[in-house]
Design a protein that fits this description.
The N and C termini lie far apart (about 45 Å). The chain is built from four helices and three strands. The chain is α/β, with parallel strands linked by helices. The chain has a three-stranded parallel β-sheet, with helices on both faces.
């Protein structure tokens, strides 16, 4: 669903990270009046998402795609802090690490 969508709406979910990797437009609820400090998984890179607090905010995001554009630099900075590598080899690295741990425990 993420891959075939233009907009992804979520709150503090790894779905937002997947959506960024796929260059989707992020929509998040704005809870700044309820939550002080780090609001969600995107914090402090707030430019990456469109924070909405009412129907008009979401209408504006959908009507004007230019309000939904983030810089590649902001995106890369955020993703490098959240994801080791985006190369599709995560399972291989995990398997290798687990094998090393298991070999170490069998000594």
């Amino acid at each position: 669903l993420i891959q075939s969508s233009k907009y992804i709406a979520a709150y503090s979910s790894t779905t937002l990270i997947e959506a960024l990797i796929l260059d989707k437009i992020l929509i998040c609820p704005d809870f700044k009046d309820l939550v002080k400090g780090a609001q969600d998984i995107i914090y402090p890179h707030l430019k990456l998402a469109n924070y909405i607090s009412n129907k008009y905010d979401i209408d504006n995001v959908i009507k004007d795609d230019n309000t939904s554009i983030y810089s590649d630099l902001d995106k890369e900075e955020y993703l490098s802090s959240m994801v080791h590598k985006i190369d599709g080899k995560c399972s291989i690295r995990v398997e290798s690490e687990l094998s090393q741990i298991l070999k170490g425990n069998n000594k």
